[in-house]
Amino acid sequence: MRHFWKRKILSALLPIAALTFSAGMPTSAQAAEPAAQHTQTKAKKVHHARKVVHRRHVIRRTHAQRGHAAAARKVSYDNGDSAARRSIESLAAHAPLKSEVAYVQDLESSAVLYNKNSDEVRPIASISKLMTALIVVESGESMHDMLTITEDDVDHLRHSRSRLVVGARLSRADMLHLALMSSENRAAHALARYYPGGVRAFVRAMNDKARALGMRKTHFLEPTGLSSDNVSTPRDLVKLLAAASRQPLIHRYTTDDHYEVDIGRGRRLAFNNTNGLVRNHKWDIQISKTGFINESGECLVMLTRIDRREVAIVLLNSVGRYSRVGDAVRVRNLVERETNLAMM
User: Fold this and answer.
1) Hey, which residues are catalytic here?
2) In CA terms, which of 35, 85, 154, 339 is 20 to 30 Å from 51?
3) CA–CA separation, 65 vs 72, rounded Å?
4) CATH number at residue 113
């Protein structure tokens, strides 16, 4: 009987204990909920991280695109400059110059406006007299000293003519004036002969000055240019033009169109400039010199102002007596055209 009631009591208490135990333990759904929340949180973090990475990638891509765009703009500008240069070169390439060697440079910007065989070493004939003038002016010798033409000044190499007879006496200034303006060979030689140390010292001074000016491909054998061994390049001659332009006396003598001298015994001789362009009011020429021997052909170098630009023009071995002047005019038109293009 006692055992019977014990079983009854236990039977009654078991459901209550089970209920209490089940209440204290999480259900399967409740147990899965934290895991689901954890998984969701982790997913959110992963999604957030992916968004951050994506945002950074977008930012980097945007910066890169901006950089590429800037680079593209720069390339575009560069291509534009190159196109302009090609246009100028194209104009130069089609300019019908008759000179075998031609070189044109803007002295202020150093821009090369025309280039045809500019590095070739060529005989320069009487262009040599620009260097002769530099040595005379820088020597410090008095321009009032009287010099006499002698037999030593006569050209026995090419037998070129001269209006200065043996025995003619002129000041050093007049000799220099005629050597530059009218390319008088006897005057140029007399200037060298009266230099301290004579002609040999004078020629040495010419070559020393060439090296000092950076004229590395230039060599002088004598002061007149009658020798074909007086050689230079257009690029070197631009340096000579620039140096000569710093001497007011050389500027004056090379651009004077007419000059008269008294050679003694009441005789006066009139000389004209060998470059007819100095008489043309359309030209503003600072330095001018012509030259000719068979080996050099017709030559012309000038420093002139075109459209407010200081332009050096070197023309060597021009075919035909007047072609060097014609080429100078064509170069002027080319430079004016290039200036108009640059302003567009």
Assistant:
1) 126, 129, 183
2) 35
3) 10
4) 3.40.710.10
The two structure tokens encoding residue 28: 């399967």
Q: Which two tokens stand for residue 145?
A: 């000293």
- Number of domain units in the chain: 1
Structural domain of 213:
99-343
66 assigned to some structural domain: no
Q: Tell me the CA distances in angstroms from 201 to 118, 121, 204, one per residue in order.
A: 30, 24, 5
Decide if 62 is inside a domain: no
Q: Is 318 left (phi over 0), alpha (psi -120 to 50) or beta?
A: beta
Residues 6+ apart with CB under 8 A from 248: none
> Letter for the amino acid at 25?
M
Residue 80 domain-assigned (yes or no) = no
Q: Which of 71-75, 109-113, 174-178, 256-260 has the lowest mean pLDDT?
A: 71-75
Write out pLDDT tens, residues 252-290: 999 999 999 988 777 899 999 999 999 999 999 999 999
What's residue 337's pLDDT?
79
pLDDT band per the 50, 70, 90 thresholds, residue 27? very low
Distance CA 181, CA 168 (A): 18
What's the pLDDT tens digit per position in 309-323? 999 999 999 987 788
Residues 264/322, Cβ–Cβ less than 8 Å: no
Report which secondary-structure segment, H or E, holds 286.
Answer: strand 284-293
Partners of residue 269 on adjacent β-strands: 261
Cα–Cα distance for residue pair 116/98, rounded to 1 Å: 11
63 domain residue, yes or no: no
In contact, 185 and 160? CB cutoff 8 Å? yes
Q: What one-character-per-residue DSSP string does 147-162 give?
A: EE--GGGS--SS----
